Amino acid sequence: MPITELLSRNSELYGQETCLTEINLDLQNSHNVIWREYELIQNNPAGEYRREMTWRVFDEKANRFANLLIKRGIKKGDKVAILLMNCLEWLPIYFGILKSGAIAVPLNFRYTAEEIKYCLNLSDSIALIFGPEFIGRLETIYDQIPQIKTLLFAGEGRPSFAESYDRLTANFSSADPNIQLTDEDDAVIYFSSGTTGFPKAILHNHGSLMSACYTEAQHHGQTREDNFLCIPPLYHTGAKMHWFGSLISGSKAVILRGIKPEWILRTVSEEKITIVWLLVPWAQDILDAIESGEVKLEDYELSQWRLMHIGAQPVPPSLIRRWKKYFPHHLYDTNYGLSESIGPGCVHLGVENIHKVGAIGVPGYNWEVKIVDDKGELVSQGQVGELCVKGPGVMKCYYNDTKATEAILKEGWLFTGDMAKMDEDGFIYLVDRKKDVIISGGENLYPVQIEDFLRSHEAIKDVAVIGLPDARLGEIAAAIIELKPGYNCNKNDIAEFCITLPRYKRPREVIFDKVPRNPTGKIEKPKLREKYGASSLVAKQTTR
After folding, report:
1. Which pTM does this prediction carry?
2. With 60 as the cut, is the pLDDT of residue 141 above it?
3. What is the mean pLDDT of residues 200-228?
4. Are strands 397-398 and 385-390 parallel, antiparallel or unpaired?
5. CATH level 2 (architecture), domain 306-433
6. Fold annotation for 4-258
7. Protein fold of 443-532
8. pLDDT at 178
9. From CA 291, how far away is CA 322, in angstroms rounded?
10. Burial of 147 (0-12, 13-18, 19+ CB in 10 A)
11. Strand locations in 25-155, DSSP E?
């Protein structure tokens, strides 16, 4: 069934119950509040706010937007883009697009004006809704996107070139438009991370979205008593597909605008959060804040917090060992996936398998996995090859890109581009991205393995290992190291620490710098390659 039916069901069964809460604990430093009708948190001179929405209001808002789009001539299969920061209205807008029969096209809030224009053109979008943060970017391109027939602004301070979403939707019916949808109907276009250039458009159908609901519920066992804390951006498959566990179980979720450790812990405490999905940097920040005394766990009520899970990038085993030291009662899971596989869950560790921390896990619910060599043949147990996945959440195609689709989809299998190996118990370990493998003197070096080792150093907050050109060896491994606040370290310290690594795996260059990560927590290695690849590395900042 189409995923919109879950929302309609929840509205009927749990209409008066709160389903979404939006919290901003730093309104004073934020210019992007969209709607006025929020509830101020008591005794908060900083102007913090908290807003709630019931299942019935959620459904009604989605229906109003769907009816607006239909009135504007949007028909089944048309594309409607979303360019909003996380907010209470994000999901009703998304579901309104789906209910109209159109295809939702979420856009990365970090896109430049040119990237926005590129993605609108690539996806054949004919409508766009955007928020206050994007006025400047849209001003520079709105006259260059004539295919956008409906341009809606959600917020205050509406620019002259857009219409008001709030004013228009208020005049439309809250009744379901009853557009007939099936699992095979196209539903959404997500965009790849664009690490090798401009992003690709990833097309999924309604059946793919429903598969994410079933997978998430199976993996994490959401019940009506759960409350999920959503922090990552909703434009990405990761956060939204984990929230689908709340949708299918009819349970609550909280959208937190901010990632400071004290904000996360305060929200978990005050909102009685039971499930939190974190990115690696945020988990590291929480642990650093605890260990530095910046936050004190006894100041928060955290006993109801049952599950912490991480996805979007490899998880250092040392991080989870630290986490269990402070949160020994937590269930833990890690989830692997791609936007091409409708986000997290095609491989997952499983809360019962914490003894296998370091692995990304086993095939997820309703998923198959294989590891193959360059010829597409299965590799032996323990050997490194490319990870391939097959299941109901595999994308339909790269929209308008047959060549790229054929390169990654073969007989129903999605070739992920990730190098992995399987142990004797069937658990899969991610080794690295295929394109990130460093070939040094004929040896294959897998940066993730070196990064995991380096992160066990007490002074290292984050690390990225990249290959740099070398006249003799072809490439050498260079470690870009971000130190924890208050720690000092130099190249000699790192060299001494790495003495237990095989010689060919030891970084031949060490650079102390910040490790850039994108909004979903993935290391932005192309930026590091661009920054350091073409310049001499002699005498690069050896201490900090």
Report:
1. 0.83
2. yes
3. 96
4. unpaired
5. Roll (2.30)
6. Rossmann fold (3.40.50)
7. GMP Synthetase; Chain A, domain 3 (3.30.300)
8. 95
9. 10
10. exposed
11. 39-40, 49-54, 79-83, 103-106, 125-130, 150-153
